[in-house]
Specification:
The complex is a heterodimer of chains A (712) and B (297).
Chain A: E1 2-3, H1 16-27, E2 30-34, H2 37-44, H3 48-73, E3 76-77, E4 89-95, H4 110-124, E5 130-135, E6 141-142, H5 153-159, H6 170-182, E7 188-195, H7 199-206, H8 212-218, E8 225-230, E9 239-246, E10 250-252, E11 256-265, E12 271-280, E13 283-292, E14 297-305, E15 310-318, E16 328-336, E17 339-345, H9 358-364, H10 366-369, E18 378-384, H11 390-393, E19 398-402, H12 411-420, E20 424-428, H13 435-443, E21 454-459, E22 497-501, E23 510-514, E24 520-527, E25 530-535, H14 552-564, E26 573-574, E27 578-583, E28 591-595, E29 601-605, E30 607-609, E31 612-619, E32 624-630, E33 633-640, H15 653-662, E34 666-668, H16 671-683, H17 688-711
Parallel strand pairs in A: 4-5, 4-7, 7-8, 8-34, 10-16, 17-18, 17-19, 19-20, 20-25, 26-33
Antiparallel strand pairs in A: 1-3, 5-6, 9-11, 11-14, 12-13, 12-15, 15-16, 21-22, 23-24, 24-25, 27-31, 28-29, 28-32, 30-31, 32-33
Helix pairs in contact in A: 3-17, 4-5, 6-8, 9-14
Chain B: H1 4-7, H2 10-17, E1 46-51, H3 63-69, E2 73-77, E3 84-90, H4 105-122, E4 126-132, E5 136-143, H5 146-158, H6 167-177, E6 183-188, H7 194-206, E7 210-217, H8 219-223, E8 230-234, E9 241-244, H9 246-270, E10 274-279, H10 284-295
Parallel strand pairs in B: 3-4, 3-6, 6-7, 7-10
Antiparallel strand pairs in B: 1-2, 4-5, 8-9
The chains are: A alpha/beta (712), B alpha/beta (297).
């Protein structure tokens, strides 16, 4: 407890007056030689003890009155933290630097407000306090390696941040904050969560989802004070590119590539004729216009063919709304001369589409098969499995085994070498496969190429429906295209027979597609530099009608291009993630130059990462096309904002307040409110009102007590 | 040898001479004159005339002298009465209280007893004196001789209050010792258990004694005027003390006092005892006058 008018506390010494009067009265006791003792005894009979207590109580009340009066006049303030040795504070600010914080507002975007307020808050900290900022957008990270008591460097560091990170991973960010707080040197610890409390990030928490990281943080001793600091923009009208999909990851020169763009209207007003521009290699190619209903979306498709081999940027940009930062989409298209694929047919046939790899050949080279003028990206070479030679592997990027019973001679070891060196392998099974050999030699208890061992063959009974692809949200780069029904309905394929796999023992093994019988249809494993995909079905129509489905062509094309580009970069990535490339060991120590969209460059050195060499940049902070150069080679990289950040709808203040209350935290919406709260925490609540009430009660009680004693 | 003047002021003596004590009820030994007596055959001899003073019974006016001289004279007889009056004086410690006005209760009582004795003797009544505290200390039987008065006064002068009060047993033993019915004048503060007192009074009354109870109060005992913290030390037992804030208990004290007085009054009324509450700051004569007025009803 502290006092605003501490000097008036001296008035409390007035308590001595009643005490002295009492003591003097007792010391100056007169002796009365008294006759009517029996009357006095009657007076005191049964009352003596009570009277004594009342006398003492009366004295206590009389002593308390001047003390309480002095306390009241001295304006006491409750300092809950004083007991912790306060003054200095360890403050961690969990600052939402997600993209939504950039939404424009008359008084500055929430990000700008946050920067200002962080400055003010830091200025208001007592000398000797230390602070740390946890940037909560995307992958939570600390602004400084460790908290600092040189508080003025924080705003400077913060000014360099762009606030274009992805959604706040609340628990992860709170864990980072808790880790910082746990090392705080000062007893008084505070956590401020500065955010726009975007509904897409916080709704589930506001609806009651647990925040274990915050609960754990609040268990720290001493308990940190938590404040939810809400910063908002009034802007809710916003157009954004919700998603964009390329029809292929890799295309041949002159081969058209499709770009399907979904544009979202997050606001409540309709938009007419919104211009959407297609841009390739930085040049605007053409413009389409779309209309958007309130809170609706529109899909627009473009195609473009690049005529030069190499990396090309392809993007769209829309115009019209007041928050243009999320109006662009960037991607990188790899244009290749061709991809060489070896098809190893385990059951060749002279009949059209009678061989095990015939459907594959057709799907991978559709233009060639159709004798069209257009050029196929993929060039296939088909060989009979029984005549497979080492030379057949040479010059190939992908090898596909179709119903091969077993590999003879050294073909298996040569194949392993091929994959280790970065080649891609797809294994379609079939009735000719020697499953024992597959498990023994091909799987080799996990050391072989196969992602998992094969349990056996399953068949759909005549009475039961055939197996189908499980309907689920697809996340694998090779299959994500099929989330949209316009890419084809995977569930149309029917499987009469399929192989059941054992549960994979390696965490590196992931299924691409699942059958509705609980077993994977395609399962993938990375094998040193290369990757292997194992299919539970045949590549021909023997076990299923998969090859007869329209989506078989894009599916196979995507599987092949995925395997062929596995060591190059994806078409685009999200801002906030670092650039990561696994390279051959020979590249260790090589320096790459990364040039960001604004033209600034940074140098990244390839470093060792276990058995591999890794090229890793700092997290990418801005969307756009980046150039990665080493010697004469330049690769393009595209980074986009997380589209969920474009829905600017914040949680209502009331909800944030409730959320704060649920976690025993305070809630503020401005620096003034923070200051008041901070003052209350630091200096405590003014207590003169309760003291005044206490004084009045004491006065009343004194009168009451005196009357009671006088009445006997 | 003690003289009346050593106890009473001269003006008191003069004043008291004009006072008459009248018995209200028939008491054994009352024969003629002012006292109606059940015993017949006693001679009544005229002694003197004296001027009428206010308060004298007009039945005793000598109308013949009035006819001749046009003045009021009262006829006095030598053997007008043979009332046996016993003054019972409380000499317990509590009577030793000397109030803030400087009057000692026992001193006041002693003077009152002397006045009573003088009055009674001057009426030819047989006066006895008993002093007591927890028991009877002095017992002077009833006599009418004038020398007897000196004996009474001498005893009064010698007596000093001291020990505990035990009024009830004293009264009970008195009932045993007073063989003949008479008037018992109790001068005390009656600081004892009221119930026990009344029981003893009842015994006395049953024996046919008429009783006059004169309760003495110091003004302090009535008003309890003490302000500062005080240690009240029992006059009858110095080890019995009470330390208290008098202001804090005053109201309660007044209540208890009132109850005690009520209890006594009620008891005396029940036993047909004349009761007089006498503060010591009032003069003896005015106290007696108010008593006589009461007796004249």
């Amino acid at each position: 407890m502290t006092f605003l008018n501490a000097i008036l506390l001296a008035g409390g010494a007035a308590f001595l007056i009643p005490l002295l009067i009492h003591l003097l009265n007792k010391r100056r006791v007169q002796t009365v030689r008294w006759g009517a003792m029996h009357l006095l005894q009657e007076v005191l009979r049964q009352r003596k003890r009570k009277l004594n207590i009342e006398q003492w109580l009366l004295l206590a009340v009389r002593i308390a009155i001047p003390i309480v009066l002095a306390l009241c006049l001295a304006r006491p303030v409750l300092t809950a933290l004083r007991s912790l040795g306060i003054g200095k504070t360890s403050l961690v600010m969990m600052l939402d630097d997600s993209f939504s914080m950039r939404a424009p507002a008359p008084g500055g975007s929430p990000a700008e407000q946050a920067r200002l307020d962080v400055g003010h808050v830091l200025d208001a900290q007592p000398n000797g306090s230390d602070a740390q900022i946890v940037l909560a957008g995307g992958n939570a990270r600390r602004l400084l390696d460790q908290s600092t008591s040189t508080l003025d460097i924080i705003p400077k560091q913060l000014a360099e941040k762009t606030n274009q990170a992805g959604p706040v991973k609340i628990n992860e960010a709170l864990q980072t904050a808790a880790a910082s707080l746990s090392k705080a040197p000062n007893g008084a610890r505070e956590l401020a969560i500065l955010s726009d409390f975007q509904a897409s990030d916080w709704q589930s928490v506001a609806d009651g989802a647990a925040l274990p990281a915050l609960d754990n943080l609040l268990k720290q001793d001493p308990k940190p004070q938590v404040t939810f600091y809400r910063l908002t923009s009034d802007l809710t009208e916003n157009l954004s590119i919700a998603s964009a999909e390329l029809s292929a990851l890799v295309v041949a020169e002159g081969q058209p590539i499709g770009l399907r763009v979904r544009i979202q209207n997050h606001g409540k007003r309709p938009w007419q004729d919104v211009a959407v521009h297609l841009e390739a290699d930085g040049a605007r190619l053409r413009t389409s216009r779309v209309s958007l209903p309130p809170e609706g979306e529109a899909v627009i498709s473009f195609t473009h063919a690049f005529d030069k081999v190499g990396d090309h940027s392809l993007g769209v940009r829309l115009e019209g709304d007041s928050f243009p930062d999320d109006n662009a989409f960037y991607s990188v298209v790899q244009v290749r001369n061709q991809l060489n694929v070896l098809l190893v047919d385990g059951d060749p046939s002279t009949e059209p589409l009678g061989g095990a790899a015939d459907f594959l050949e057709l799907a991978l080279t559709p233009y060639q098969s159709a004798k069209a003028d257009l050029k196929d990206l993929i060039r296939t070479t088909k060989v009979d499995a029984r005549r497979l030679r080492e030379d057949d592997y040479r010059g190939k990027e992908i090898i596909i085994l179709a119903d091969v019973d077993r590999l003879q001679g050294n073909r298996l070891s040569e194949l392993e070498k091929f994959v280790k060196g970065g080649g891609g392998l797809i294994v379609f099974t079939g009735p000719h496969c020697d499953l024992d050999w597959y498990n023994r030699e091909f799987y080799k208890k996990g050391d072989g190429l196969l992602p998992t061992s094969i349990k056996g063959l399953l068949r759909a009974q005549s009475s039961t429906a055939p197996a189908r692809v499980l309907q689920q949200r697809l996340t694998h780069p090779a299959t994500v295209y099929f989330n949209d029904a316009r890419g084809g309905r995977l569930q149309d394929a029917e499987f009469q027979s399929w192989l059941e796999f054992d549960a994979p023992k390696d965490a590196n093994v992931k299924p691409l597609l699942q059958l509705d019988r609980g077993t994977p249809l395609f399962i993938e494993k990375s094998y040193e530099q290369g990757r292997v995909i194992l299919a539970a079905t045949t590549a021909d129509a023997e076990w299923s009608n998969l090859p007869l489905q329209p989506f078989f062509v894009p599916l196979m094309q995507r599987l092949v291009t995925y395997l062929a580009t596995q060591n190059s970069l994806t078409a685009w990535d999200l801002v906030g993630e670092p650039l990561r490339m696994v390279l051959p060991k020979s590249r260790l120590g090589v320096e790459y130059t990364l040039r960001d969209p604004t033209g600034q460059t940074s140098t990244i050195k390839v470093k060792a990462d276990g058995e591999e060499a890794l090229l890793e940049s700092l997290p990418i902070t801005a969307p756009g096309i980046y150039k990665l150069t080493q010697g004469n080679t330049t690769q393009l990289l595209a980074y986009n904002l997380d589209p969920t950040e474009s829905d600017l709808t914040p949680l209502p203040a009331e909800k944030v307040k409730q959320l704060a209350e649920r976690h025993n935290a305070a809630f503020v919406e401005s620096f003034d409110a923070w200051q008041k709260l901070d003052r209350t925490r630091r200096h405590g609540s003014e207590l003169w009102q309760p003291f005044l009430i206490g004084l009045l009660v004491l006065l009343f009680f004194e009168v009451l007590l005196q009357q009671r004693i006088a009445r006997g | 040898m003690a003289t009346l003047s050593s106890i009473l002021e001269a003006e008191d003596i003069t004043s008291l001479q004009s006072l008459q004590l009248f018995a209200r009820t028939v008491v054994e030994g009352f024969t003629t004159g002012q006292h109606a007596s059940p015993h017949k055959g006693f001679s009544v001899e005229f002694r003197q005339h004296r001027p009428y003073v206010q308060g004298d019974d007009i039945r005793r006016l000598d109308w013949k002298i009035f006819g001749r001289a046009d003045r009021f004279y009262i006829r006095e007889f030598d053997e007008e009465t043979n009332l046996r009056a016993t003054i019972v004086l409380d000499a317990s410690g509590s009577m030793n209280y000397r109030g803030q006005k400087g009057v000692q209760k026992f001193d006041y009582a002693r003077k009152l007893a002397a006045a009573m004795a003088y009055l009674l003797m001057s009426q030819q009544d047989a006066v006895g004196l008993i002093t007591f505290d927890s028991k009877i200390r002095e017992f002077i039987p009833n006599r009418t001789r004038i020398t007897h008065l000196h004996h009474v006064l001498e005893t009064l002068v010698k007596t000093e209050p001291g020990k505990d009060t035990a009024l009830a047993p004293v009264l009970e033993s008195l009932a045993q010792r007073l063989k003949r019915r008479g008037l018992v004048i109790l001068i005390s503060d009656f600081f004892d258990d009221a119930t026990a007192i009344m029981r003893a009074i009842g015994v006395l009354r049953k024996k046919g004694h008429e009783i006059i109870a004169m309760q003495l109060w110091d003004r302090d005992e009535l008003d309890f005027p003490f302000g500062q913290w005080s240690r009240f030390e029992n006059l009858e037992n110095s080890e019995d003390t009470l330390l208290l804030d008098p202001a804090a208990v005053r109201l309660r004290y007044m209540e208890v006092l009132k109850n005690f007085q009520e209890q006594l009054k009620e008891g005396f009324r029940k036993h047909q005892v004349d009761y007089l509450s006498l503060p010591t700051d009032e003069s003896h004569s005015s106290a007696l006058r108010s008593y006589l007025a009461l007796r004249m009803r």
